[in-house]
Write a structure and sequence with these properties.
Number of strands: 10
Shape: globular
Number of domains: 1
CATH architecture: 3-Layer(aba) Sandwich
Oligomer: single chain
Helix content: 40-55%
Strand content: 5-15%
Radius of gyration: 19 Å
Strand order of the largest sheet: 3-2-1-4-5-6-9
Number of helices: 15
Bound molecules: NADP nicotinamide-adenine-dinucleotide phosphate
Low-confidence stretches: none
CATH topology: Rossmann fold
Order of helices and strands: EHEHEHEHHEHEEHHEHHEEHHHHH
CATH superfamily: NAD(P)-binding Rossmann-like Domain
Distance between the termini: 38 Å
Structural class: alpha/beta
Length: 293
């Protein structure tokens, strides 16, 4: 393990968001210097990061020049983009920009937040986009670790996912209620990313398919009822309307999950981080914190 020293800076993209935020907190907790990227350093989330000890830097992943300045002198970068905000074309542009800037700055390690199974033939736009970014990173010869989750447990509880709690209505409709879904809490994926920076010799070159547990929506619903004492709130919406107002990729993804073999298993994550939260743990913790979905 490489203990971080004061000069060891990890740049965290998307630091005001779910994954980047969790990675920034993990890295700060482990003693790294964290350079948190945001387009809006005055936002609440950015100010919270600064208060937690991060160096908050304005950068736009669409603007290569801002990335060159932000990555200078760092040891590594955690790279994440969000196609739900930018569209997949811009996701690819942004992901490649971060990769190019990492190459130019000669960073020792890039941890890339990918998604899905790593298979090329899914037809899911925001999984294919990530494969394109990964291929670019490999072409550049970056020292790369890929963290590859499928479904975050936050989908079951967080109001931030649009449309709110669509997981309980549209996912079972499209994927099937009994289809095993590979779940992971964002913080467990972030903990793995932080470990990768701490132990580069162990993690560079690895493609980590991360799931804490495979559980169907029917099983998750039963756990939710047991733990919260009521049914999760669905958000009834016909698929055509969801396609129009939310995301075609989400529809394709859930259908694909329903039609395919179980997308992975929990072996990799359990070997790295046996204490990763199960769905039961997740719902119990959320309830304890007063944050039911
Ligand atoms: N939901 C799931 O179950 C799931 C599962 C596996 C993988 N994923 C993947 O997770 C990714 C999304 O991650 P997330 O949930 O952490 O996203 P998020 O919470 O929406 O955060 C995205 C962050 O990116 C930053 N950002 C957006 N555009 C930017 C730009 N042009 N330049 C610089 N920063 C920019 C934003 O920061 P500022 O606004 O402060 O600039 C924001 O903090 C997607 O790629 C998705 O495919 C999701």
């Amino acid at each position: 393990m490489t203990p971080p020293d004061a000069a060891s800076t990890i740049v965290v993209a998307g630091a005001t968001g779910r994954q980047g935020g969790a990675v920034a907190r993990r890295l700060l907790g482990a003693g790294w210097t964290v350079r948190a990227l945001t387009r809006s350093p005055d936002s609440k989330a950015a100010r919270r990061l600064a208060a937690a000890g991060a160096e908050v830097v304005r950068a736009d992943m669409s603007d290569r020049g801002s990335l060159d300045a932000a990555l200078a002198g760092a040891r590594g970068v955690f790279s994440v983009q969000n196609p739900a905000l930018s569209g997949v074309k811009d996701e690819v542009r942004q992901g490649k920009n971060v990769a190019d800037a990492a190459r130019a700055a000669e960073l020792e390690h890039v941890v890339y937040a990918s998604a899905g199974t790593g298979a090329a033939d899914t037809g899911i736009g925001w999984w294919d986009s990530k494969l394109e970014i990964e291929a670019h990173m490999r072409e550049l010869g970056l020292a790369l670790t890929i963290v590859r989750p499928v479904a975050f447990m936050e989908l079951m509880t967080d109001r931030g996912f649009y449309p709110p709690v669509s997981t309980w209505h549209l996912m079972p409709k499209l994927a099937g209620g009994s289809t095993p879904i590979p779940w992971i809490a964002v913080d467990d994926a972030a903990a793995v990313a932080a470990l990768a920076f701490a132990e580069p010799e162990r993690y560079i070159g690895r493609d980590l398919k991360l799931a804490a547990e495979l559980r169907s929506i029917d099983e998750c619903r039963a756990l939710y009822r047991e733990i919260l004492g009521r049914r999760p709130r669905g958000f009834p919406m016909p698929v055509w309307m969801f396609n129009r107002v939310a995301s075609r990729d989400l529809v394709t993804m859930w259908r694909w999950l329903g039609d395919s073999e179980p997308a992975g298993n929990s072996d990799t994550l359990r070997a790295i981080r046996p204490e990763s939260l199960t769905v039961r743990d997740w719902l119990q913790r959320r309830t304890a914190r007063g944050q039911p979905g």
